[in-house]
C-alpha cells in the first residue's frame, strides 16, 4: 500500500506542471482574444477606418513572422528617409512661425522686415510640404528599403523576383469616398513603369456590423499579396513612380 501511495503521489506531482502549463496557455489565448475584441470603430467614419486598415497593412509588412514564403530569412525594413525630410521641413516651418509669434512681436514695427521673412518662410515651407503630399506621396503609405542580406537576395531571386535588391517596395492604398472597396498596391519604389501586384477587398470582409475589426484576416490577405510580389507574379505595369496604376480590378467570382 505504501508503494502504491508513493506512486500515486509521484504521478500527481508529475501532472501538476502539465496542468499549470495548459492553464497558462488557455489564459494567454483568452487575453489575446480579449485584446482583439477591444478593437472597435465606427464604420461610418471613413477616415478612421482607412487609418486602421493602413496601419495594419504597414505593420504586417514590417513585423509579420509569416510575411515571406522563405520565413524569417527575408526581412523587410521600412525606409524612413522620406518621412524624415518631411519632418525636418515641418519643424523648420514651426520654428519660423514660433519666432514670428513670440520673438519678434515685441519690437514691432522696427523689426517688420524680419517678421515678414519669418512669415514668408513659413508659408513657403508649408507650400512645399503640400506639394510633396499631393504630387509625390499621393496614395503612398509606406516605402521599404531594398534587400541587403545576400542569403535573402538569393532566396527571393530564385523564387522569381529579380529586382528586390535594387528597389524597395512602394506601398499604396486606395479607399475612395462613398465606396466600400479598399485596394492595396505593391510596386517597386523608384522604378518607372514598375510592375505591381494589386488586390481589392470589401471593407465588410474585415469589419462586422458592430465595427469589430478582423485584424488577423487582413494580415493574412496582405501576406498573400506580398508573397505574390516576392514570387514575381505581377498583375500589370503601372505608370511612373507614384502614378496611378493602369491595372484593372479583378472580377471576383463568388
Q: Care to give the gist of this entry?
A:
This protein has helices at residues 2-37, 46-63, 81-103, 112-137, 150-159, 215-230; strands at 140-143, 168-174, 181-189, 195-202, 236-237. With 254 residues, it is of the alpha+beta class.
Explain what the structure shows.
With 254 residues, the protein is an alpha+beta fold. Helices cover 51% and strands 12% of the residues. Strands 1-2-3-4-5 form a five-stranded antiparallel β-sheet, covered by helices on one side. Mean pLDDT is 84; it is low at 238-254.
Low-confidence stretches: 238-254
Envelope shape: globular
Order of helices and strands: HHHHEHEEEHE
Across the major sheet, the strand order is 1-2-3-4-5
Secondary-structure-derived class: alpha+beta
SSE arrangement:
Elements: H1 2-37, H2 46-63, H3 81-103, H4 112-137, E1 140-143, H5 150-159, E2 168-174, E3 181-189, E4 195-202, H6 215-230, E5 236-237
Antiparallel strand pairs: 1-2, 2-3, 3-4, 4-5
Helix pairs in contact: 2-6, 3-4
